[in-house]
Request: fold
Amino acid sequence: MGEYALVEDRARTTHKNPIVACVTRHRLEVYFGSVDRAFGKPELIATDPEYRSGDWVRRLMLEMVHPELDTRGDVLQFMPGIHLLYASSAVIENKDTLPPLVKDTEP
Reply:
């Protein structure tokens, strides 16, 4: 089962979905011969077109996905299409200039 992270714009007008960016994290168990290994797999990464210049996906990846996968001990992260995500949005560039996201764990 996966975990989900999303960004909401709660001030957005009522006729639009408040979710503006999201990502899921999955833990996969793999076997290489006699070696068992678990790794993380972020997927279903999306941003509302009106919010693409807001760095929301980059912030979700840097502040929530990568740290959580590190915390649970995943030594590998499988990210098909990584070149498209990181190259198109400059995910690593200027990561220290953004304020942190606020984690809201309430359902």
Remarks:
- The two ends are 17 Å apart (CA to CA).
- Helices lie at 56-71, 82-89.
- The mean pLDDT is 76.
